[in-house]
């Protein structure tokens, strides 16, 4: 498991205390420093590369979003904030998680472990040879994503979200169109709003599909029989 280096930034001292307390209870991470002043944090982070920053958003002098955008590199990020209106912006910045205060330890731990998984995936895939991939347009850019990196596809009306360990892609396409276009590659519909690769399914029960990476997705009633026959 990767050793994740972390810096916490929050103008409220009790919040930083909580971050320290929670981080002390999680294995394989190193909380290098914490800052109440985001400008001081920015200077530190320019000199010291870290894997993950845990950021408040609404802070004096500089917001967490502004801090993240000014860094010369792109660390993983978890927003830990009272604000709820910046979730879309967080999605655009590819943050690992968006936590709304107050946050209990288990929720915090899951978010940090997700960042650990991202780092491990990134490190392990640097020299990995992959052959099967799909191409699609997202935000006016053509993207190439390898099949083994696609965790699931989720539908939102005229759009779908393609989820990988490192990034989420918003694509202007309906679920039915995606399903038809790539069905020969092993994708399977498990719910009106979810498509997965059959090769990534570990098991399923009456209500859920369990992926090999530990994720749990809903299983729609109308898709149970098809999944059963497909997996036999």
Number of strands: 15
**Level-1 CATH class name of the largest domain:** Alpha Beta
Give the % helix.
25-40%
Strand content: 25-35%
User: Are there runs of 5+ residues with pLDDT below 50, and where?
Assistant: none
Mean pLDDT across all amino acids = 88
Can you tell me the CATH topology of the largest domain? Answer: Rossmann fold
Architecture overview:
GO terms for molecular function: DNA binding; phosphorelay response regulator activity. Residues 147-232 form the HTH LytTR-type domain. The modification 4-aspartylphosphate is found at residue 56. InterPro entries: CheY-like_superfamily (IPR011006), LytR-like (IPR046947), LytTR_DNA-bd_dom (IPR007492), Sig_transdc_resp-reg_receiver (IPR001789). By secondary structure, the protein is α/β, with parallel strands linked by helices. It folds into 2 domains: 4-124, Response regulator (Rossmann fold, 3-Layer(aba) Sandwich), CATH 3.40.50; 133-231, LytTr DNA-binding domain (OB fold (Dihydrolipoamide Acetyltransferase, E2P), Beta Barrel), CATH 2.40.50. The protein is built from 7 helices and 15 strands. The protein has helices at 13-23, 38-47, 64-70, 87-92, 105-124, 175-182, 224-231; strands at 4-9, 29-35, 52-55, 76-81, 97-100, 133-138, 141-146, 152-156, 159-163, 168-172, 187-191, 194-197, 201-204, 208-211, 216-218. A 5-stranded parallel sheet has the order 2-1-3-4-5, sandwiched between helices. Strands 10-9-8-12-11 form a 5-stranded antiparallel sheet, with helices on one face. A hairpin with a 4-residue loop joins strand 9 (159-163) and strand 10. Helix 2 (38-47) runs parallel beside helix 3 (64-70). The protein is elongated. The two termini are 34 Å apart. The mean pLDDT is 88.
